[in-house]
Write a structure and sequence with these properties.
GO terms for molecular function: ditrans,polycis-polyprenyl diphosphate synthase [(2E,6E)-farnesyl diphosphate specific] activity; magnesium ion binding. The chain has a 6-stranded parallel sheet with strand order 3-4-2-1-5-6, sandwiched between helices. Helix 1 crosses helix 2 and helix 3 runs parallel beside helix 4. Strand 3, helix 4 and strand 4 form a beta-alpha-beta unit. It has one domain: 3-Layer(aba) Sandwich (Undecaprenyl pyrophosphate synthetase). The two termini are 33 Å apart. The protein contains 8 helices and 6 strands, in the order βααβαβαβααββαα. The chain is an alpha/beta fold and 246 residues long. Helix content is 43%, strand content 14%. The structure holds farnesyl diphosphate (FPP). Farnesyl diphosphate binds next to helix 1, helix 2, strand 2 and helix 3.
Length: 246
């Protein structure tokens, strides 16, 4: 089994993003309720955060709850929110011990007030940390993010704060939820699905995509290492030819 030590530390992805998928199917396979899958998913989150911090990955972004997830049964949504609150409470110490700074992207105002409060507290209490930035995508939808950015820019044009000729990629970047993050280098999706599901559509323009046939609660160190090894074996050309890169 692969271990963290095998990785070339000079060629690590700066920003890793993960679509944590398959909690429900993991539970179903065991004849349990979907909630059981989410509970076990939390352990995979803890381990992955710890491993990325050990590797000194600078940015880790996790798709924890999408705008579409609000359509799930009420009891499942409530349990996911409770899990979020209890995990934040439990993990504050560990985040600080590992110098991890927490942040969040998405429509945070739409979360239950308890979740908003806990999130704000952990974000504030880890804000001085200088190691990895862990970003939770909560009530996040990429199209909504782009729509909001377009509206804000349009308003600035209307009020003569910015002229249309000056709208470039950098301007768009500064209006996205992710304005404080670099582009994604490696996007991992678990559970065998080969979809992006409205996650960071703008930010993954040049990301390497890695799909793995393992349900999220089973995702462990060696899976993360396999994903990064695959990333390290790829040639990132950003539109250029191999010869130009050499
Ligand atoms: C996808 O599995 C998973 C989610 C929608 C939620 C992810 C949440 C956690 C791992 C737990 C809480 C998170 C934090 C950050 C503490 P699915 O339910 O879509 O699985 P399925 O595709 O098999 O139905």
């Amino acid at each position: 089994m692969h271990t963290l030590e095998e990785l070339n530390k000079n060629r690590l992805p700066k920003h890793v993003a993960i679509i944590m998928d398959g909690n429900g199917r993991w539970a179903k396979e065991r004849g349990k309720l979907r909630i059981f899958g989410h509970q076990n998913g939390v352990e995979a989150v803890r381990k992955t955060v710890e491993n990325c911090a050990k590797l000194q990955i600078q940015f880790l972004t996790l798709y924890a709850f999408s705008t579409e997830n609000w359509n799930r049964p009420k009891i499942e949504v409530e349990t996911l929110m409770k899990l979020l609150v209890s995990s934040l409470r439990k993990e504050l110490k560990t985040l600080n011990k590992n110098n991890i700074k927490l942040s969040a992207i998405g429509n945070i105002d739409s979360l239950p007030s308890k979740a908003q409060k806990e999130l704000a507290e952990v974000i504030s209490k880890t804000s001085k940390n200088t190691g990895m930035t862990l970003t939770l995508a909560l009530s996040y939808g990429s199209r909504e993010e782009i729509k909001i950015a377009v509206k804000e820019i349009a308003l600035k044009v209307k009020n003569n704060i910015i002229s249309p000729e000056n709208i470039d990629e950098a301007v768009i970047n500064t209006h996205l939820y992710t304005h404080f993050l670099p582009d994604v280098d490696l996007l991992i999706r678990t559970s065998g699905e080969h979809r992006i599901s409205n996650f960071l559509l703008w930010q993954i323009a040049y990301a390497e995509l890695y799909f793995i046939d393992v349900f999220w609660p089973d995702f462990r160190e060696h899976h993360l290492v396999e994903a990064i090894l695959s990333y390290q074996n790829r040639e990132r050309r950003f539109g250029k030819t191999s010869e130009q890169l050499n």
